[in-house]
Structures are given as structure tokens and as C-alpha cells.
Amino acid sequence: MKKTLAAALSAALGAALFLSACGPGMMQAAAPKPMAEPSSPLGGFREALAHPLSPSIDDSSHVLGSPSASLTLVEYSDFQCPYCAKAADTVAALRAQYGNRLRFVFKPVALTNIHPQALLAAQYFEAASLQSPAKAWQFYDALFANQDKFGGDFFEAEARGLGLDMARLDQDVQGPVVEARLAADEREFHGFGFTGTPSFLLNGAPIVGAWPLSYFEKMFAIASANPPPVAVPPSPPASAAAPRPAKPWWQQP
């Protein structure tokens, strides 16, 4: 039987994954603890860069940065996950450090079995983006800064405070466009073999967990020194599960 992504990571990193990411069957953590860098070798990450996964990135994607950036970081994140809140700080630091060399793509997913408010948060975020991408990013900041206040009243108050059209927002939150966007991101998340959040693709190479900034910097350095051999064309909308990598880099000895 093939190991799941979480099981493979657990074998490679011991219990580290479950201390740096939220996933199925886990208890909700009150707050993430500071994480040390994992001991897995980064040579396999370099090899993964040579065989990148291809996430869908199109005009409806949530993107900060230039399409011509040499580094693309895609994050699959749950708004109610405490490790995702920690990762949001790391991403902000990376964007400040790498500037126009980094393009960041955000894809919300909801682990509803442990985060009952995550889906509604994602729906509000997507609905806000239909009116104003800039205000959706402000909503993103407010969500990760106020996970202890989650609920419909909080989401509505934040949206109203951003000056969004509330009548339209109420329709879009439960509308077909938002539903389709979230479903596509969820299919892609599972299709790549991910089971926990936050999960990332750096130039197509997978990373799982809210690791320290210093660890991301090492992977960014490797990605910068090993650009993709050819440009990867945009993927079509995720209509079926994407192929799972045969041997993820974290399984390398």
C-alpha cells in the first residue's frame, strides 16, 4: 500500500510534521510552538525542482508579485490553522526579503474536521476577491491575525469595515463561483498528495509545514541556483486529481 504524504513525512522526519502542520486526525492546537529546522537532507529538494509539479495559476488566482519572478511560492492554507497563521508571517518576511524576485500564490483549503470555521472564512475571502483583490488581501491579514474571533459575525464585520458591497457578498459567499474555486483548489491539494496545512510548492517542489524562516531561506537559495530547465506552461483547471509524485524528496535517505 502506498504511503500517504503525511505517513511518508512522518517516517522521514519523525513526529516533526505533526508539530508544524495541521492535518486529519489531529487535535486543534491552541498555539504553534517554535520549530527547529528538520534534519532531512535538502539534496532531494534540488532533485524535486528538476521535476516540478504544475499548479493551476490563472487570472482568478490570488497572486502577489510579478509573473516574471524567478521564484514562485504556492501555498495551500487553512485560515483557522494556527500553523498557517505562523506561515503567513514567514511568507510576509520572505516577500519583504526577496521583493520582485518572488511571486506568491495563495490557495485556501479547509480542514473542516478540525477547523469548523475554516470553510466559511475561505468563502468570505473568495467572495471578497470577486469585488476587490486588494480588499481580499486585507481580509486575509485580518483572518490570520484574529483566529480567536472566528465566526459569521466577525467575518461580516470585517467585510463591512472594508467597505465591501454586503448584499453582493452575501450572495457570492454561497454562490457557484466561490464554490467552484474552492473545489478546484481542494482537488489540486489532494491530487498532489497533500493532507496537512500549510503545504507549499516552491517552483513546483513540495514543502510541508510551518518551518522556520531560516529553513525556507535555504530552500529559496537552492531554487534560485537551480532554475527550471524549461518554462512550465500553466495547468488547465483542476478537473481531476493531479498525479502524485512517485518518490517525494523527503523520502530520500
What is shown here, in short?
By secondary structure, the chain is α+β, with helices and mostly antiparallel strands.
CATH class equals Alpha Beta
Compute the number of structural domains.
1
CATH names the topology as Glutaredoxin
| Shape by Cα distribution | globular
Order of helices and strands: HHHEEHEHHHHHEEH
Flag low-confidence runs: 1-18, 238-243, 249-253
Describe the structure.
A five-stranded mixed β-sheet has the order 1-3-2-4-5, sandwiched between helices. It has one domain (5-11, 41-231): 3-Layer(aba) Sandwich (Glutaredoxin). Helices cover 44% and strands 10% of the residues. The chain has ten helices and five strands; from the N terminus they run αααββαβαααααββα. The chain is of the alpha+beta class and 253 residues long. It has helices spanning 5-13, 16-20, 43-49, 82-98, 118-131, 133-145, 152-161, 166-173, 176-191, 213-225; strands at residues 62-64, 71-77, 102-108, 199-202, 205-208.
Characteristics:
disordered C terminus, single chain, globular, Glutaredoxin, five-stranded mixed β-sheet, disordered N terminus, 10 helices, 253 residues, 10% strand, alpha+beta
Secondary structure topology:
Layout: H1 5-13, H2 16-20, H3 43-49, E1 62-64, E2 71-77, H4 82-98, E3 102-108, H5 118-131, H6 133-145, H7 152-161, H8 166-173, H9 176-191, E4 199-202, E5 205-208, H10 213-225
Parallel strand pairs: 2-3
Antiparallel strand pairs: 1-3, 2-4, 4-5
